[in-house]
Write a structure and sequence with these properties.
alpha/beta; Rossmann fold; 5-stranded parallel beta sheet
Amino acid sequence: MATIKPINILMAEDSPSDADLAREAFKNGKLMNGLVIVPDGVEAMAYMRKEGKYANEPRPDIIVLDLNMPKKDGRQVLAELKQDPVFKHIPVVILTTSEDEADVMKSYELQASCYVTKPMDFDKFLEVAKQIKQFFFSVVTLPPNAEK
């Protein structure tokens, strides 16, 4: 069995209950390598740019974005990330309650790595976390993180 190297995950999620569910699911799914959860898109971009309190945070290997957040939504964050030569190679997983085909299409047009409809119950969320782990940590070769 291959050794799983530590992975840093940035998650932008405005719902405290969904953030807690994600934290618990990733923990139970053995994904607690480096999970940072921010409450909106403005904070996500501040984290990525190492602004203020995020100055010493590691660059994430994977970004998990909710689409519908205050201040700056996930679509805007995704567009900014993919236009930035420093960040565009980082895989972005859209994890949202929206099943709207327009949201799916727009996310892929903006170069999301994948689009996952957010499960509402813990067991299903745990399964999603395990699948993310399996795919991104065991199957896929992630781009090198220049900071490591």
